[in-house]
Specification:
Layout (H helix, E strand, L loop, with lengths): L7 E5 L3 H13 L3 E6 L2 H10 L4 E5 L1 E2 L2 E2 L1 H10 L3 E5 L15 E3 L4 H13 L5
Parallel strand pairs: 1-2, 1-3, 3-6, 6-7
Antiparallel strand pairs: 4-5
Helix pairs in contact: 2-3
């Protein structure tokens, strides 16, 4: 990465293997990973306890929706992408302008999604 510092990405994903794939991909791309958090409460705790620049949020976390995390990220101006097998329909109207990574996705899909998030951000 050509940034002056490594970006920190919060990963909230309840499927362990998917979380590991996301974590590995992010590290290969030069990001630092916060988490992964596997449940809603753990995701909120990680967000409140660690500096975060970006986030990848699974929409459905073992029956709970990650929308409270997305709400808090939006309040703080931290860009995020939802990960879901249901596409935009899985958001059920919450954060309709947020980008969605449709499962299954590849490492390249993650790279592109985060690059697009960063393109929208003002330069540090």
């Amino acid at each position: 990465m050509d940034d002056r510092r490594r970006r920190r990405v919060l990963v909230v994903e309840d499927e362990v293997l998917v979380a590991m794939m996301i974590e590995d991909t992010l590290q290969e791309l030069g990001y630092d990973v916060v988490g992964p958090a596997y449940r809603l409460g753990a995701g909120l705790t990680a967000l409140d306890g660690e500096p975060v620049d970006l986030a990848v949020l699974d929409v459905n976390l073992a029956g709970e929706r990650s929308i409270p995390i997305a709400d808090r990220l939006a309040e703080r101006g931290i860009p995020f992408v939802f990960a879901t097998g249901y596409g935009k329909a899985g958001l059920m109207g919450a954060h309709p302008d947020a980008p969605v990574l449709r499962k299954p996705f590849s490492g390249e899909d993650i790279r592109v999604a985060l690059a697009r998030l960063l393109e929208r951000q003002p330069q540090d």
